[in-house]
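STRUCTURE:
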């Protein structure tokens, strides 16, 4: 398969970060750079758009300056570093004293020079006073501070740089816990579209909006992908350089829990009394609980400071009331806060950094990503705790960083009502350490060599084929394209399958997986290798029944701002037509709109009240009926017709009329009254109403009034649709039993359930309608082998292929069980044979 276009297609799925920069020679690097700094500068310049996540004190400012200097030397133009307020002095000083480079501080484009390096804060860019696209290269210093602007600003800010040719991010504390932060950086750098990254690596929690879970089978690929455009450097030796001078100082974390003052009972709306506040609850409750413990926490902080009078202290707080209380309890404290003039803040921070102030109070959100404080301070006290891990860790590392000469002690004071908040914070810290260890392991293994990463990922391409068979069935664990190539020409009587819904799900970590695609277009490109093989293997005039479902596209991913629908069923029809199939019909399988809304949040009743234009309708499933043209185009019959005898049963005239007619006749009787239905239990209501709606004349207004009456009586369920009308059309199936799948057996035996199980009802009807007993039914996306399983029960033969080895081996068990069940004689068989004897 060395020259196989399909293999080339699979290898092209490997998506590491592209390179758009230039090669830097060793002699062009500033001699002031240390070994690890020079290696990262060369790597970032080669990539052109990269992130340097270097631990505190490793010299990320020097690396940014040198990187932009080399780019301007090579290409000319202007460079810009965007940094938090309070950091610019350190950057300008590093440029001048370490690299001999001058950087101009600006806040407007009018202040900019025609060439050279410039420095600005985030606010002028955010507020539109400075267009970054006027620069050849831009580097974001401590870009994690953008989170303090709010998530909307965070996302829109990063798009302001779309026309900047060279883009970089340099921060010590990107949070591996915050996947969206990493994905936003990738979007800023132009490595991968944010929506595409979310779809490729993450599954959504249908019970919580915007809750992301990294696919377990995608975890390794995700971190290798991140490592192709970002380096998490903990220490120089990670890249093979000496750690001399880069030993972190000893570190001590001391926790202090204080009791909350009880100031009376509070009562909730439900009448439940509450004596103590809960800081782990909502924001209002957290603020009340924090204020209740204010005096105790400030007293403990003052005690800690008093016990070490000679030490310099950073005092971290979150509330203005805490700042004022600290200033009152510790008169020597000088505070930095939002109401101060910028120059006053600058002066205070610099005096403390230089050792001329002993007590500095500030909010982590304001000063956490600020100047280095390690030269004269090794003590810090947090006067309370919050869930904001990044703010916490940034504040810790103002003093816990390389070049700190003393043992660092961090005291954390929290109230008993904040106990769970403290535990959550420590859990996030532990998780952060685990994920950083993963990134360090990748650096140790691959260094800065993304070619080696690419080869590692390429090893997931291909499957060692396994075949299993029995009486009437044959299945394979293989790539479906390779398996389809093995099928004999005109060998299949019927194809029944549920194709992957583009990149909506990934079932395996293999690049052979059809769900491992970027978008619909990419998915259909892989299908272009499979569909011609299925057409070749299907007998002329026979049917391929394709189960599909349209996809909900979420507005925060597409940028549309509102959920829209991808017409996947229509794309399916045109795909198969393009490859020579005939479009014969489309069966609609009705779904429950209420349950769908609980999973997608796009049909919310409350949102409909705000704006009816946002309201779509429920998304049904479809079975697209495609047909391979018969050999004799002068006649409409298949080469091997699905012919039946007039047996008065499955092939009766009456049944044909019902199946072929668009609608059933109604009896003219009335709908049930709300009073009658209000007494029916919810479990039976849905089935009963559907039956009644089929047998009687349907009236829309009456239907609505019934629902309104039930709602008024508190009898209208909110978790499922109780008043769904039945279908009178043979091509609209309302009665598919969604519980009848092989997932029921999977769940009962504790095995992994299939993500998208195909219902028995759908498979059975298609097999009975479009094949005869003894014929071969094929499924190119076998899953748990529902199609061959049901084919055996319906006295057909079944064949399928599945890429996942877990599903493959579980599916074999069901086929073997079906074979035993079908082959076992019944008591009547034994009696008949005895009578014959």
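SEQUENCE:
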């Amino acid at each position: 398969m060395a020259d196989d276009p399909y293999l080339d297609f699979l290898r092209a799925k490997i998506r590491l970060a592209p390179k758009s920069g230039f090669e830097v020679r060793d002699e062009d690097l500033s001699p002031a750079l240390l070994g690890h700094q020079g290696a990262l500068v060369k790597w970032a310049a080669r990539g052109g758009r990269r992130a340097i996540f270097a631990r505190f004190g490793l010299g990320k400012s020097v690396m940014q300056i040198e990187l932009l200097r080399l780019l301007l030397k090579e290409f000319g133009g202007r460079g810009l570093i965007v940094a938090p307020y309070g950091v610019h002095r350190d950057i300008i000083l590093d440029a001048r004293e370490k690299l001999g480079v001058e950087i101009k501080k600006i806040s407007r484009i009018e202040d900019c020079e025609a060439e050279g390096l410039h420095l600005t804060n985030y606010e002028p860019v955010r507020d539109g006073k400075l267009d970054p696209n006027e620069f050849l290269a831009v580097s974001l210093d401590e870009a994690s501070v953008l989170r303090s602007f709010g998530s909307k600003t965070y996302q829109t800010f990063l798009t302001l740089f779309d026309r900047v040719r060279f883009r970089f991010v340099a921060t010590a504390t990107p949070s591996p816990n915050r996947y969206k932060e990493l994905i936003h950086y990738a979007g800023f750098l132009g490595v991968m579209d944010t929506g595409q990254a979310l779809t490729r690596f993450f599954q959504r929690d249908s019970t919580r909006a915007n809750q992301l879970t990294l696919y377990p089978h995608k975890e390794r690929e995700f971190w290798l992908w991140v490592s192709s455009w970002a380096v998490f450097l903990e220490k120089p030796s990670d890249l093979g350089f000496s750690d001399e001078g880069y030993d972190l100082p000893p570190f001590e974390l001391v926790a202090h829990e204080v009791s909350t003052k009880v100031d009376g009972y509070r009562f909730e709306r439900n009448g439940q009394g509450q004596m103590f506040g809960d800081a782990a609850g909502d924001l209002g409750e957290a603020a009340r609980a924090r204020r209740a413990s204010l005096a105790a926490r400030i007293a403990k902080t003052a005690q800690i400071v008093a016990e070490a009078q000679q030490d310099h202290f950073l005092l971290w707080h979150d509330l203005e009331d805490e700042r004022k209380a600290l200033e009152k309890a510790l008169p020597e404290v000088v505070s930095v806060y939002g109401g101060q003039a910028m120059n006053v803040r600058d002066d205070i921070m610099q005096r403390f950094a230089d050792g001329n102030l002993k007590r500095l109070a500030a909010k982590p959100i304001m000063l956490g990503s600020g100047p280095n404080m390690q030269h004269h301070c090794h003590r810090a006290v947090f006067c309370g705790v919050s869930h904001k891990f990044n703010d916490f860790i940034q504040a810790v590392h103002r003093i816990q960083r390389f070049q700190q000469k003393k043992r660092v002690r961090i005291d954390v004071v929290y109230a008993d009502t904040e106990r769970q908040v403290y535990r959550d914070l420590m859990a996030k810290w532990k998780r952060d350490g685990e994920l950083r260890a993963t990134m360090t392991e990748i650096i140790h293994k691959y260094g800065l060599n993304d070619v080696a990463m690419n080869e590692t990922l390429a090893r997931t391409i291909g499957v060692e084929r396994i075949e299993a068979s029995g009486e009437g069935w044959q299945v394979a664990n293989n790539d479906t394209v390779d398996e389809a190539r093995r099928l004999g020409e005109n060998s299949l009587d019927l194809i029944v399958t549920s194709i992957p819904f583009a990149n909506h799900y990934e079932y395996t970590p293999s690049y052979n997986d059809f769900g491992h695609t970027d978008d619909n277009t990419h998915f259909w490109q892989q299908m272009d290798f499979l569909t011609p093989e299925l057409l070749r293997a299907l007998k002329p005039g026979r049917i391929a029944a394709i189960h599909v479902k349209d996809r909900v596209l979420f507005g925060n991913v597409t940028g549309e701002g509102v959920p829209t629908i991808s017409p996947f069923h229509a794309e399916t029809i045109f795909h198969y037509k393009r490859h020579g199939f005939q479009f014969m019909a489309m069966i609609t399988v009705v779904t429950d709109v209420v349950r769908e809304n609980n999973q997608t949040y796009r049909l919310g009743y409350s949102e409909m009240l705000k704006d009816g234009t946002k309201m779509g309708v429920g998304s049904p499933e479809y079975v697209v009926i495609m047909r391979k043209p018969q050999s004799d185009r002068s006649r409409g019959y298949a080469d091997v017709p699905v012919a039946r005898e007039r047996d008065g049963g499955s092939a009766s005239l009456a049944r044909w009329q019902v199946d072929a007619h668009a609608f059933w006749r109604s009896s003219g009787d009335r709908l049930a009254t709300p009073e009658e239905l209000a007494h029916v239990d919810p479990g039976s209501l849905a089935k009963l109403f559907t039956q009644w709606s089929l047998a009687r004349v349907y009236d829309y207004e009456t239907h609505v009034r019934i629902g309104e009456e039930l709602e008024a009586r508190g009898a209208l369920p909110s978790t499922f649709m109780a008043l769904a009308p039945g279908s009178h059309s043979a091509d609209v199936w309302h009665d598919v039993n969604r519980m009848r799948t092989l997932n029921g057996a999977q769940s009962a035996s504790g095995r992994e359930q299939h993500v998208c199980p195909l219902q028995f009802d759908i498979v059975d009807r298609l097999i009975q309608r479009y094949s005869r007993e003894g014929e071969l039914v094929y499924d190119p996306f076998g899953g748990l082998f529902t199609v061959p399983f049901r084919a055996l029960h319906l006295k057909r033969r079944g064949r399928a292929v599945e890429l996942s080895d877990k599903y493959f081996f579980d599916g074999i068990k069901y086929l073997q069980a079906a074979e035993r069940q079908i082959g076992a004689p019944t008591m009547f068989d034994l009696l008949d044979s005895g009578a014959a004897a």
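REMARK: Residues 514 and 753 are 19 Å apart (CA to CA).
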